[in-house]
Write a structure and sequence with these properties.
Helix content is 22%, strand content 16%. The chain has helices at 15-30, 34-37, 68-76, 90-99, 127-133, 257-271, 303-325, 374-377, 403-410, 427-430, 500-515; strands at residues 7-8, 11-12, 43-49, 78-80, 83-84, 137-143, 171-175, 187-188, 191-192, 202-204, 234-235, 238-239, 243-245, 277-282, 332-338, 381-384, 392-394, 398-399, 440-444, 448-452, 455-458, 466-467, 472-473, 481-484. Residues 1-16, 18-38 and 517-524 have low confidence and may be disordered. It folds into two domains: 46-197 and 264-438, Alkaline Phosphatase, subunit A, CATH 3.40.720; 443-515, Arylsulfatase, C-terminal domain, CATH 3.30.1120.10. The structure holds 2-acetamido-2-deoxy-6-O-sulfo-beta-D-galactopyranose and calcium ion.
Protein backbone atom coordinates (compact mmCIF):
# COMPACT_ATOMS: atom_id res chain seq x y z
CA UNK A 1 0.00 0.00 0.00
CA UNK A 2 2.96 2.37 0.49
CA UNK A 3 3.53 3.27 -3.15
CA UNK A 4 0.20 5.08 -3.26
CA UNK A 5 1.44 7.41 -0.51
CA UNK A 6 4.71 8.16 -2.26
CA UNK A 7 3.03 10.50 -4.64
CA UNK A 8 0.50 13.27 -4.30
CA UNK A 9 -1.44 14.51 -7.29
CA UNK A 10 1.10 17.28 -7.46
CA UNK A 11 4.08 14.94 -7.28
CA UNK A 12 6.15 13.55 -4.42
CA UNK A 13 4.93 14.27 -0.88
CA UNK A 14 7.21 16.38 1.19
CA UNK A 15 8.90 14.69 4.14
CA UNK A 16 6.65 16.15 6.84
CA UNK A 17 3.36 15.27 5.16
CA UNK A 18 4.67 11.81 4.41
CA UNK A 19 5.64 11.22 8.06
CA UNK A 20 2.24 12.45 9.23
CA UNK A 21 0.50 10.11 6.86
CA UNK A 22 2.65 7.20 7.97
CA UNK A 23 1.82 7.95 11.59
CA UNK A 24 -1.89 8.22 10.83
CA UNK A 25 -1.96 4.88 9.03
CA UNK A 26 -0.05 3.06 11.76
CA UNK A 27 -2.25 4.62 14.45
CA UNK A 28 -5.34 3.46 12.57
CA UNK A 29 -3.98 -0.06 12.16
CA UNK A 30 -3.27 -0.23 15.87
CA UNK A 31 -6.92 0.41 16.70
CA UNK A 32 -8.72 -2.75 17.72
CA UNK A 33 -10.41 -4.29 14.75
CA UNK A 34 -8.65 -2.51 11.95
CA UNK A 35 -5.84 -5.03 11.91
CA UNK A 36 -8.28 -7.69 10.79
CA UNK A 37 -10.42 -5.35 8.78
CA UNK A 38 -7.54 -4.82 6.37
CA UNK A 39 -8.09 -8.36 5.16
CA UNK A 40 -5.00 -10.06 6.54
CA UNK A 41 -6.92 -12.27 8.96
CA UNK A 42 -9.70 -14.51 7.75
CA UNK A 43 -13.16 -15.11 9.12
CA UNK A 44 -13.23 -18.24 11.23
CA UNK A 45 -16.04 -20.79 11.23
CA UNK A 46 -15.60 -23.68 13.63
CA UNK A 47 -18.18 -26.42 13.03
CA UNK A 48 -18.05 -28.58 16.11
CA UNK A 49 -19.86 -31.91 16.08
CA UNK A 50 -20.88 -33.77 19.21
CA UNK A 51 -19.60 -37.34 19.68
CA UNK A 52 -18.57 -37.69 16.03
CA UNK A 53 -15.90 -40.37 15.78
CA UNK A 54 -12.73 -40.52 13.71
CA UNK A 55 -14.25 -43.27 11.57
CA UNK A 56 -17.69 -41.67 11.11
CA UNK A 57 -16.89 -39.61 7.98
CA UNK A 58 -16.32 -41.01 4.53
CA UNK A 59 -13.17 -38.90 4.13
CA UNK A 60 -11.84 -40.80 7.17
CA UNK A 61 -12.77 -44.19 5.74
CA UNK A 62 -16.45 -44.69 6.57
CA UNK A 63 -18.16 -46.68 3.84
CA UNK A 64 -21.71 -47.15 5.05
CA UNK A 65 -22.39 -43.47 5.51
CA UNK A 66 -21.44 -40.84 2.95
CA UNK A 67 -20.46 -37.34 4.02
CA UNK A 68 -19.92 -35.49 0.72
CA UNK A 69 -19.83 -32.01 2.22
CA UNK A 70 -17.15 -32.72 4.81
CA UNK A 71 -15.36 -34.72 2.13
CA UNK A 72 -15.41 -31.65 -0.12
CA UNK A 73 -13.91 -29.60 2.68
CA UNK A 74 -11.20 -32.24 3.18
CA UNK A 75 -10.54 -32.32 -0.57
CA UNK A 76 -10.12 -28.55 -0.67
CA UNK A 77 -8.31 -28.35 2.64
CA UNK A 78 -6.15 -30.24 5.08
CA UNK A 79 -7.28 -33.40 6.84
CA UNK A 80 -5.57 -34.20 10.13
CA UNK A 81 -4.95 -37.73 11.37
CA UNK A 82 -3.63 -36.99 14.87
CA UNK A 83 -5.81 -34.14 16.11
CA UNK A 84 -7.40 -34.28 19.53
CA UNK A 85 -10.24 -32.96 21.55
CA UNK A 86 -8.81 -32.07 24.95
CA UNK A 87 -10.95 -34.69 26.71
CA UNK A 88 -13.11 -37.73 26.02
CA UNK A 89 -16.35 -36.02 27.10
CA UNK A 90 -18.03 -32.80 26.22
CA UNK A 91 -17.77 -30.31 29.08
CA UNK A 92 -14.02 -30.63 29.71
CA UNK A 93 -13.30 -30.57 25.97
CA UNK A 94 -15.32 -27.43 25.45
CA UNK A 95 -13.87 -25.80 28.54
CA UNK A 96 -10.37 -26.35 27.15
CA UNK A 97 -11.39 -25.30 23.64
CA UNK A 98 -12.74 -21.95 24.83
CA UNK A 99 -10.25 -21.12 27.60
CA UNK A 100 -7.01 -22.68 26.37
CA UNK A 101 -6.63 -24.35 29.75
CA UNK A 102 -6.69 -28.10 30.29
CA UNK A 103 -9.93 -28.84 32.13
CA UNK A 104 -8.30 -31.29 34.53
CA UNK A 105 -6.61 -28.33 36.18
CA UNK A 106 -9.96 -27.07 37.39
CA UNK A 107 -12.53 -28.77 39.61
CA UNK A 108 -16.12 -28.85 38.46
CA UNK A 109 -15.42 -29.28 34.77
CA UNK A 110 -16.88 -32.79 34.40
CA UNK A 111 -20.08 -33.46 32.41
CA UNK A 112 -22.52 -30.87 33.78
CA UNK A 113 -26.22 -31.14 34.57
CA UNK A 114 -28.53 -28.78 32.71
CA UNK A 115 -28.99 -26.48 35.70
CA UNK A 116 -25.29 -25.88 36.39
CA UNK A 117 -23.90 -22.38 36.77
CA UNK A 118 -21.45 -21.03 34.18
CA UNK A 119 -18.05 -22.63 34.86
CA UNK A 120 -15.88 -20.13 32.97
CA UNK A 121 -15.27 -16.92 34.89
CA UNK A 122 -16.51 -13.85 33.03
CA UNK A 123 -13.62 -11.66 32.07
CA UNK A 124 -11.09 -14.38 31.42
CA UNK A 125 -9.66 -14.80 27.95
CA UNK A 126 -11.69 -17.07 25.69
CA UNK A 127 -11.61 -17.82 21.99
CA UNK A 128 -14.42 -15.30 21.64
CA UNK A 129 -12.97 -12.51 23.78
CA UNK A 130 -9.54 -12.71 22.16
CA UNK A 131 -10.99 -12.57 18.65
CA UNK A 132 -13.38 -9.82 19.71
CA UNK A 133 -10.44 -7.80 20.93
CA UNK A 134 -8.97 -8.22 17.45
CA UNK A 135 -12.11 -6.74 15.94
CA UNK A 136 -14.05 -9.90 15.14
CA UNK A 137 -17.79 -10.20 15.58
CA UNK A 138 -18.29 -13.39 17.52
CA UNK A 139 -21.21 -15.80 17.70
CA UNK A 140 -22.02 -19.20 19.15
CA UNK A 141 -24.89 -21.30 17.84
CA UNK A 142 -25.75 -24.72 19.25
CA UNK A 143 -24.73 -26.88 22.14
CA UNK A 144 -23.17 -25.06 25.09
CA UNK A 145 -22.83 -27.41 28.08
CA UNK A 146 -20.61 -25.07 30.12
CA UNK A 147 -23.34 -23.97 32.53
CA UNK A 148 -25.38 -20.78 32.51
CA UNK A 149 -26.20 -18.24 35.16
CA UNK A 150 -24.76 -17.49 38.59
CA UNK A 151 -24.00 -19.85 41.47
CA UNK A 152 -27.17 -21.87 42.02
CA UNK A 153 -27.96 -21.90 38.29
CA UNK A 154 -30.05 -19.82 35.94
CA UNK A 155 -33.59 -18.55 36.42
CA UNK A 156 -35.05 -19.72 33.10
CA UNK A 157 -37.90 -17.21 33.38
CA UNK A 158 -35.73 -14.13 33.65
CA UNK A 159 -32.51 -12.77 32.19
CA UNK A 160 -29.99 -15.63 31.97
CA UNK A 161 -26.60 -14.27 32.89
CA UNK A 162 -23.66 -14.80 32.97
CA UNK A 163 -23.32 -16.85 29.81
CA UNK A 164 -21.56 -16.57 26.45
CA UNK A 165 -22.24 -12.83 26.21
CA UNK A 166 -20.14 -12.37 29.35
CA UNK A 167 -17.33 -14.41 27.77
CA UNK A 168 -16.79 -12.35 24.66
CA UNK A 169 -19.55 -13.55 22.34
CA UNK A 170 -21.65 -10.85 20.69
CA UNK A 171 -24.42 -13.32 19.89
CA UNK A 172 -25.59 -16.68 21.18
CA UNK A 173 -28.31 -19.17 20.34
CA UNK A 174 -27.98 -22.18 22.57
CA UNK A 175 -29.01 -25.62 23.57
CA UNK A 176 -28.16 -24.91 27.23
CA UNK A 177 -26.62 -28.32 28.04
CA UNK A 178 -27.25 -31.35 25.80
CA UNK A 179 -30.13 -32.68 23.74
CA UNK A 180 -30.76 -35.36 26.36
CA UNK A 181 -30.78 -32.98 29.35
CA UNK A 182 -33.48 -30.58 30.50
CA UNK A 183 -34.27 -27.76 30.01
CA UNK A 184 -35.29 -28.63 26.43
CA UNK A 185 -35.53 -25.02 25.27
CA UNK A 186 -33.36 -22.71 23.19
CA UNK A 187 -31.74 -19.70 24.80
CA UNK A 188 -31.08 -16.75 22.50
CA UNK A 189 -28.73 -14.24 24.03
CA UNK A 190 -30.12 -13.99 27.56
CA UNK A 191 -33.68 -15.25 27.09
CA UNK A 192 -35.48 -18.54 26.58
CA UNK A 193 -37.01 -18.44 23.09
CA UNK A 194 -40.82 -18.68 23.07
CA UNK A 195 -41.28 -18.54 26.83
CA UNK A 196 -44.65 -17.38 28.09
CA UNK A 197 -45.14 -15.87 31.50
CA UNK A 198 -48.11 -17.99 32.59
CA UNK A 199 -46.17 -21.24 32.14
CA UNK A 200 -42.95 -20.73 34.08
CA UNK A 201 -40.04 -23.09 33.52
CA UNK A 202 -38.66 -25.06 36.42
CA UNK A 203 -35.76 -27.45 36.24
CA UNK A 204 -34.51 -29.95 38.80
CA UNK A 205 -31.89 -32.63 38.96
CA UNK A 206 -32.30 -35.03 41.87
CA UNK A 207 -35.82 -34.67 43.20
CA UNK A 208 -38.65 -34.61 40.63
CA UNK A 209 -40.37 -31.31 39.98
CA UNK A 210 -43.89 -30.79 38.62
CA UNK A 211 -46.31 -33.54 37.71
CA UNK A 212 -45.41 -34.31 34.12
CA UNK A 213 -45.02 -37.93 33.03
CA UNK A 214 -41.61 -39.52 33.15
CA UNK A 215 -40.02 -42.24 31.08
CA UNK A 216 -39.80 -44.34 34.20
CA UNK A 217 -43.50 -44.21 35.08
CA UNK A 218 -45.03 -43.79 31.63
CA UNK A 219 -42.94 -45.73 29.12
CA UNK A 220 -46.05 -46.17 26.97
CA UNK A 221 -45.79 -42.46 26.05
CA UNK A 222 -42.32 -42.80 24.56
CA UNK A 223 -41.41 -42.87 20.89
CA UNK A 224 -37.87 -43.98 21.77
CA UNK A 225 -37.07 -45.81 24.98
CA UNK A 226 -33.99 -45.38 27.11
CA UNK A 227 -31.48 -48.20 27.38
CA UNK A 228 -29.82 -46.71 30.46
CA UNK A 229 -30.60 -43.55 32.42
CA UNK A 230 -32.68 -40.99 30.48
CA UNK A 231 -35.94 -41.93 32.21
CA UNK A 232 -37.03 -38.62 33.64
CA UNK A 233 -39.25 -35.87 32.14
CA UNK A 234 -40.72 -36.69 28.73
CA UNK A 235 -40.32 -33.97 26.13
CA UNK A 236 -41.47 -34.60 22.55
CA UNK A 237 -42.02 -38.28 23.31
CA UNK A 238 -38.45 -38.76 24.57
CA UNK A 239 -37.52 -39.02 28.23
CA UNK A 240 -34.48 -37.00 29.30
CA UNK A 241 -31.95 -36.61 32.08
CA UNK A 242 -33.47 -34.30 34.71
CA UNK A 243 -36.90 -32.98 35.51
CA UNK A 244 -38.60 -30.04 33.90
CA UNK A 245 -42.00 -28.43 34.20
CA UNK A 246 -43.60 -25.55 32.32
CA UNK A 247 -42.28 -23.77 29.24
CA UNK A 248 -44.45 -25.98 27.04
CA UNK A 249 -44.63 -23.49 24.18
CA UNK A 250 -40.86 -23.05 24.26
CA UNK A 251 -39.81 -26.68 24.05
CA UNK A 252 -37.77 -27.78 21.11
CA UNK A 253 -38.76 -30.42 18.61
CA UNK A 254 -35.79 -32.72 18.14
CA UNK A 255 -36.61 -33.44 14.49
CA UNK A 256 -36.30 -29.71 13.70
CA UNK A 257 -33.16 -29.03 15.67
CA UNK A 258 -30.61 -29.33 12.86
CA UNK A 259 -32.68 -27.00 10.68
CA UNK A 260 -33.21 -24.46 13.46
CA UNK A 261 -29.52 -24.31 14.41
CA UNK A 262 -28.30 -24.23 10.82
CA UNK A 263 -30.68 -21.38 10.00
CA UNK A 264 -29.36 -19.41 12.97
CA UNK A 265 -25.75 -20.10 11.98
CA UNK A 266 -26.36 -18.91 8.43
CA UNK A 267 -28.28 -15.85 9.62
CA UNK A 268 -25.19 -14.93 11.66
CA UNK A 269 -22.96 -15.25 8.58
CA UNK A 270 -25.32 -13.17 6.47
CA UNK A 271 -25.69 -10.45 9.07
CA UNK A 272 -21.97 -10.14 9.65
CA UNK A 273 -20.66 -10.78 6.16
CA UNK A 274 -19.09 -7.33 5.91
CA UNK A 275 -16.85 -7.65 8.98
CA UNK A 276 -14.45 -10.27 10.21
CA UNK A 277 -16.40 -12.83 12.18
CA UNK A 278 -15.91 -15.91 14.28
CA UNK A 279 -18.73 -18.42 14.36
CA UNK A 280 -18.65 -21.34 16.76
CA UNK A 281 -21.33 -23.61 15.29
CA UNK A 282 -21.73 -26.39 17.77
CA UNK A 283 -24.20 -28.94 16.42
CA UNK A 284 -26.40 -31.24 18.47
CA UNK A 285 -25.62 -34.05 16.02
CA UNK A 286 -24.55 -36.73 16.47
CA UNK A 287 -25.31 -36.86 20.22
CA UNK A 288 -28.29 -38.74 21.69
CA UNK A 289 -31.20 -38.60 21.37
CA UNK A 290 -30.64 -39.28 17.68
CA UNK A 291 -33.83 -38.03 16.10
CA UNK A 292 -33.15 -36.85 12.55
CA UNK A 293 -35.56 -34.83 10.46
CA UNK A 294 -37.79 -37.21 8.44
CA UNK A 295 -35.88 -36.36 5.25
CA UNK A 296 -32.79 -38.08 6.67
CA UNK A 297 -34.57 -41.10 8.11
CA UNK A 298 -33.34 -44.28 6.45
CA UNK A 299 -30.62 -42.49 4.50
CA UNK A 300 -27.84 -44.77 5.67
CA UNK A 301 -29.14 -48.18 6.60
CA UNK A 302 -27.41 -47.74 9.97
CA UNK A 303 -30.47 -46.46 11.78
CA UNK A 304 -30.65 -43.08 13.50
CA UNK A 305 -26.94 -42.98 14.37
CA UNK A 306 -26.00 -43.18 10.71
CA UNK A 307 -28.82 -40.88 9.64
CA UNK A 308 -27.74 -38.10 12.00
CA UNK A 309 -24.23 -38.31 10.54
CA UNK A 310 -25.84 -37.62 7.16
CA UNK A 311 -27.79 -34.78 8.78
CA UNK A 312 -24.60 -33.33 10.29
CA UNK A 313 -23.00 -33.45 6.86
CA UNK A 314 -25.98 -31.58 5.44
CA UNK A 315 -25.45 -28.83 8.06
CA UNK A 316 -21.82 -28.52 6.93
CA UNK A 317 -22.99 -28.30 3.31
CA UNK A 318 -25.44 -25.53 4.14
CA UNK A 319 -22.71 -23.48 5.81
CA UNK A 320 -20.30 -24.03 2.90
CA UNK A 321 -23.07 -23.10 0.47
CA UNK A 322 -23.79 -19.89 2.39
CA UNK A 323 -20.09 -18.94 2.35
CA UNK A 324 -20.01 -19.53 -1.42
CA UNK A 325 -23.19 -17.52 -1.96
CA UNK A 326 -21.88 -14.65 0.16
CA UNK A 327 -18.54 -14.84 -1.67
CA UNK A 328 -16.76 -15.34 1.61
CA UNK A 329 -15.22 -18.76 1.03
CA UNK A 330 -11.77 -17.43 0.08
CA UNK A 331 -11.65 -15.22 3.15
CA UNK A 332 -12.80 -17.82 5.64
CA UNK A 333 -10.97 -20.50 7.57
CA UNK A 334 -13.47 -23.31 8.06
CA UNK A 335 -12.77 -26.07 10.55
CA UNK A 336 -14.77 -29.21 11.23
CA UNK A 337 -14.07 -31.26 14.33
CA UNK A 338 -15.71 -33.07 17.23
CA UNK A 339 -15.78 -32.68 21.02
CA UNK A 340 -14.92 -36.29 21.84
CA UNK A 341 -14.86 -39.75 20.34
CA UNK A 342 -17.82 -41.89 19.38
CA UNK A 343 -20.22 -44.03 21.38
CA UNK A 344 -22.78 -46.44 19.98
CA UNK A 345 -25.27 -47.04 22.82
CA UNK A 346 -25.32 -43.81 24.83
CA UNK A 347 -28.59 -44.44 26.59
CA UNK A 348 -31.43 -44.89 24.09
CA UNK A 349 -32.69 -47.93 22.20
CA UNK A 350 -32.12 -46.42 18.79
CA UNK A 351 -30.87 -49.44 16.85
CA UNK A 352 -27.32 -48.09 16.81
CA UNK A 353 -25.89 -51.36 18.13
CA UNK A 354 -28.09 -53.59 16.02
CA UNK A 355 -27.37 -51.75 12.77
CA UNK A 356 -23.68 -50.99 13.29
CA UNK A 357 -22.46 -53.91 11.19
CA UNK A 358 -18.85 -53.45 10.15
CA UNK A 359 -18.87 -49.66 10.62
CA UNK A 360 -16.08 -48.63 12.98
CA UNK A 361 -17.02 -45.30 14.58
CA UNK A 362 -13.54 -44.74 16.05
CA UNK A 363 -11.80 -45.87 12.86
CA UNK A 364 -8.61 -47.74 13.66
CA UNK A 365 -8.35 -46.46 17.23
CA UNK A 366 -9.16 -48.34 20.41
CA UNK A 367 -11.93 -47.13 22.75
CA UNK A 368 -14.24 -44.18 22.17
CA UNK A 369 -16.11 -41.55 24.14
CA UNK A 370 -15.27 -41.81 27.88
CA UNK A 371 -12.07 -43.71 27.07
CA UNK A 372 -8.41 -42.81 27.56
CA UNK A 373 -7.47 -44.94 24.57
CA UNK A 374 -6.99 -42.96 21.38
CA UNK A 375 -10.63 -43.34 20.33
CA UNK A 376 -11.60 -41.06 23.23
CA UNK A 377 -9.94 -37.90 21.97
CA UNK A 378 -8.53 -38.51 18.49
CA UNK A 379 -11.22 -36.91 16.37
CA UNK A 380 -11.68 -35.72 12.83
CA UNK A 381 -10.23 -32.30 12.07
CA UNK A 382 -10.45 -30.70 8.67
CA UNK A 383 -9.28 -27.15 7.93
CA UNK A 384 -9.91 -25.22 4.73
CA UNK A 385 -8.75 -21.77 3.75
CA UNK A 386 -8.57 -21.55 -0.04
CA UNK A 387 -5.35 -20.05 -1.35
CA UNK A 388 -3.70 -20.28 2.03
CA UNK A 389 -3.93 -23.92 3.12
CA UNK A 390 -2.54 -26.38 0.59
CA UNK A 391 -4.86 -29.38 0.30
CA UNK A 392 -3.55 -32.61 1.74
CA UNK A 393 -3.27 -34.78 4.81
CA UNK A 394 -1.24 -33.99 7.92
CA UNK A 395 -0.20 -36.21 10.81
CA UNK A 396 0.85 -33.28 13.00
CA UNK A 397 -0.08 -33.78 16.65
CA UNK A 398 -2.70 -31.14 17.41
CA UNK A 399 -5.07 -30.41 20.27
CA UNK A 400 -8.08 -28.13 20.41
CA UNK A 401 -6.72 -26.52 23.60
CA UNK A 402 -4.37 -24.77 21.18
CA UNK A 403 -7.05 -23.09 19.11
CA UNK A 404 -6.96 -20.10 21.47
CA UNK A 405 -3.26 -19.31 20.95
CA UNK A 406 -3.42 -20.29 17.29
CA UNK A 407 -6.46 -18.18 16.41
CA UNK A 408 -5.03 -15.31 18.47
CA UNK A 409 -1.89 -15.46 16.33
CA UNK A 410 -4.00 -15.58 13.19
CA UNK A 411 -5.79 -12.43 14.30
CA UNK A 412 -2.57 -10.65 15.26
CA UNK A 413 -3.26 -10.81 19.00
CA UNK A 414 -0.73 -11.45 21.71
CA UNK A 415 -1.94 -13.38 24.72
CA UNK A 416 -1.30 -11.75 28.08
CA UNK A 417 0.02 -13.48 31.21
CA UNK A 418 -2.37 -16.21 32.36
CA UNK A 419 -4.37 -16.14 29.14
CA UNK A 420 -4.80 -19.58 27.57
CA UNK A 421 -2.32 -21.09 30.06
CA UNK A 422 -2.01 -24.45 28.27
CA UNK A 423 -2.56 -23.16 24.76
CA UNK A 424 0.35 -23.45 22.33
CA UNK A 425 0.42 -21.57 19.05
CA UNK A 426 0.32 -24.40 16.49
CA UNK A 427 -1.02 -22.20 13.71
CA UNK A 428 1.75 -23.18 11.30
CA UNK A 429 0.72 -26.83 11.58
CA UNK A 430 -2.97 -25.97 11.33
CA UNK A 431 -2.29 -24.09 8.11
CA UNK A 432 -0.11 -26.92 6.81
CA UNK A 433 3.11 -24.89 6.74
CA UNK A 434 4.78 -27.53 8.85
CA UNK A 435 4.07 -31.11 9.83
CA UNK A 436 5.35 -30.43 13.31
CA UNK A 437 2.57 -29.84 15.79
CA UNK A 438 2.89 -30.33 19.51
CA UNK A 439 5.82 -32.23 20.99
CA UNK A 440 3.58 -33.60 23.70
CA UNK A 441 -0.04 -33.45 24.72
CA UNK A 442 -2.08 -34.57 27.70
CA UNK A 443 -5.23 -36.57 26.97
CA UNK A 444 -8.06 -36.69 29.51
CA UNK A 445 -10.71 -39.29 30.32
CA UNK A 446 -10.90 -40.83 33.81
CA UNK A 447 -7.12 -41.13 33.97
CA UNK A 448 -4.81 -38.75 32.15
CA UNK A 449 -2.41 -39.89 29.45
CA UNK A 450 0.70 -38.29 28.03
CA UNK A 451 1.53 -38.47 24.35
CA UNK A 452 5.18 -37.76 23.61
CA UNK A 453 7.01 -38.71 20.43
CA UNK A 454 6.02 -42.27 19.53
CA UNK A 455 4.96 -43.02 23.09
CA UNK A 456 1.75 -42.92 25.05
CA UNK A 457 1.68 -43.32 28.80
CA UNK A 458 -1.62 -43.86 30.65
CA UNK A 459 -1.45 -43.16 34.37
CA UNK A 460 -2.61 -45.89 36.78
CA UNK A 461 -6.25 -45.75 37.78
CA UNK A 462 -8.52 -48.12 39.61
CA UNK A 463 -12.06 -48.64 38.43
CA UNK A 464 -13.95 -50.69 35.91
CA UNK A 465 -12.14 -51.41 32.67
CA UNK A 466 -15.27 -51.39 30.60
CA UNK A 467 -18.47 -49.44 31.02
CA UNK A 468 -21.05 -52.19 30.63
CA UNK A 469 -23.89 -49.83 29.67
CA UNK A 470 -22.09 -48.09 26.82
CA UNK A 471 -19.79 -51.05 26.14
CA UNK A 472 -16.77 -48.73 26.11
CA UNK A 473 -13.27 -49.73 27.14
CA UNK A 474 -12.36 -46.99 29.58
CA UNK A 475 -8.64 -47.67 29.84
CA UNK A 476 -8.53 -47.84 33.64
CA UNK A 477 -5.61 -49.99 34.79
CA UNK A 478 -4.27 -50.05 38.34
CA UNK A 479 -0.71 -50.37 37.04
CA UNK A 480 -0.89 -47.86 34.23
CA UNK A 481 -0.08 -48.62 30.61
CA UNK A 482 2.56 -47.71 28.07
CA UNK A 483 2.19 -48.03 24.33
CA UNK A 484 4.55 -47.45 21.46
CA UNK A 485 1.92 -45.86 19.26
CA UNK A 486 4.12 -45.74 16.19
CA UNK A 487 4.47 -49.56 16.25
CA UNK A 488 1.18 -50.32 17.95
CA UNK A 489 -1.42 -47.71 16.97
CA UNK A 490 -4.24 -49.92 18.22
CA UNK A 491 -2.83 -49.88 21.80
CA UNK A 492 -2.94 -53.66 22.05
CA UNK A 493 0.33 -54.38 23.83
CA UNK A 494 1.20 -52.45 26.98
CA UNK A 495 4.96 -52.18 27.50
CA UNK A 496 4.64 -50.80 31.04
CA UNK A 497 6.22 -53.89 32.59
CA UNK A 498 8.85 -54.39 29.89
CA UNK A 499 9.95 -50.74 29.60
CA UNK A 500 9.86 -49.55 33.19
CA UNK A 501 12.36 -46.74 32.58
CA UNK A 502 10.32 -45.22 29.78
CA UNK A 503 7.12 -45.55 31.85
CA UNK A 504 8.81 -43.86 34.83
CA UNK A 505 10.17 -41.06 32.63
CA UNK A 506 6.74 -40.29 31.22
CA UNK A 507 5.06 -40.60 34.62
CA UNK A 508 7.45 -37.95 35.95
CA UNK A 509 6.90 -35.75 32.93
CA UNK A 510 3.13 -35.97 33.38
CA UNK A 511 3.58 -35.11 37.05
CA UNK A 512 5.70 -32.11 36.07
CA UNK A 513 3.06 -30.84 33.62
CA UNK A 514 0.39 -31.30 36.25
CA UNK A 515 2.29 -29.43 38.85
CA UNK A 516 3.63 -26.67 36.71
CA UNK A 517 1.66 -24.59 35.42
CA UNK A 518 0.44 -22.73 33.53
CA UNK A 519 0.23 -19.23 34.89
CA UNK A 520 -3.18 -18.55 36.28
CA UNK A 521 -4.17 -22.21 36.31
CA UNK A 522 -5.46 -23.81 39.48
CA UNK A 523 -3.55 -26.84 40.67
CA UNK A 524 -5.38 -30.17 40.39
C1 LIG B 1 -23.85 -39.34 30.34
C2 LIG B 1 -25.15 -39.75 29.69
C3 LIG B 1 -24.93 -39.77 28.20
C4 LIG B 1 -24.44 -38.42 27.72
C5 LIG B 1 -23.18 -38.04 28.49
C6 LIG B 1 -22.68 -36.67 28.17
C7 LIG B 1 -26.49 -41.31 31.06
C8 LIG B 1 -26.74 -42.71 31.46
N1 LIG B 1 -25.53 -41.09 30.15
O1 LIG B 1 -24.00 -39.26 31.71
O2 LIG B 1 -26.12 -40.11 27.54
O3 LIG B 1 -25.43 -37.45 27.90
O4 LIG B 1 -23.44 -38.06 29.87
O5 LIG B 1 -22.29 -36.59 26.86
O6 LIG B 1 -27.14 -40.41 31.57
S1 LIG B 1 -21.40 -35.38 26.40
O7 LIG B 1 -21.11 -35.61 25.01
O8 LIG B 1 -22.20 -34.20 26.61
O9 LIG B 1 -20.20 -35.42 27.23
CA1 LIG C 1 -19.82 -34.93 23.26
Amino acid sequence: MWPCFSKSPAGALDGLRRRRLLWLVSALLALPGLGVANGASPNIVLIYADDLGYGDLSCYGAARVQTPHVDRLAHEGLRFTDAHAAAATCTPSRYALLTGEYAWRKKGTGVLPGNAALIIEPGRATLASVLRRAGYTTGVVGKWHLGLGPEGGADWNAEIKPGPLELGFHYSFLIPATGDRVPCVYVENRRVVGRVRRDPIQVAYGQPIGSEPTGKNNPELLKMRPSHGHDMTIVNGISRIGYMSGGRAARWVDEEMADVLTRKAIAFLEKNRKRPFFLYFSTHDIHVPRVPHPRFVGKTGMGPRGDVIAQFDWCVGEVLGALDRLKLADRTLVLVSSDNGPVVDDGYMDDAVEKLGDHRPAGPWRGGKYSIFEGGTRVPLVARWPGRIQPGVSDALLCQVDFLASFAALAGQTLGPGEGPDSVNTLAALLGETRRGRDQVVEQAGPLALRQGPWKYIEPRKGQRRNAATNTELGNDPLGMLFHLADDPGETNSLAAAQTNKAAELRLELRRIRGVAAEGAAQP
